[in-house]
Amino acid sequence: MPTTKKTAKKAAAKSGALRVTTARDGFRRAGRAWHGTTDVPAGELSAAQIKALRADPMFEVGEPT
C-alpha cells in the first residue's frame, strides 16, 4: 500500500511522535529553528527538549492527528 499523508500521520501517532507548532517562524528552541507545524518522530528529541518546548509559550506541543 502506498504511503499517503494520512497513513504517515497515523504511523507517526502510533510511534509516539509529537506535533510542534510555533507562534513565529524561525523561533529557536531544542537546538533547532522551528517553522509552522512540524511532526517530530519519537526519539528525535530528548525528554529535556520536550519539556522545554512544552514550557515555552511560543510553542504548542501535542500529538499528530
Give an account of the 3D structure.
There is one protein chain. By secondary structure, this protein is α+β, with helices and mostly antiparallel strands. The protein is built from two helices and five strands, in the order H-E-E-E-E-H-E. The chain has helices spanning 5-14, 47-55; strands at 18-22, 27-29, 32-34, 37-40, 59-62. A three-stranded antiparallel sheet has the order 4-1-5, with helices on both faces. Strands 2-3 form a two-stranded antiparallel ribbon.
List the main descriptive attributes of the protein structure presented here.
two-stranded antiparallel sheet; Ribosomal Protein L9, domain 1; three-stranded antiparallel sheet; alpha+beta
Low-confidence stretches: none
Give the number of DSSP strands: 5
Strand order of the largest sheet: 4-1-5
- The ordered H/E elements are HEEEEHE
Structural class designation? alpha+beta
Shape: globular
Largest sheet: 3 strands, antiparallel
Radius of gyration: 12 Å
CATH fold call: Ribosomal Protein L9, domain 1
Q: In angstroms, what separates the terminal alpha carbons?
A: 20 Å
Q: What is the average of the pLDDT values?
A: 84
In short:
The protein has 65 residues and is an alpha+beta fold. Helices cover 29% and strands 29% of the residues.
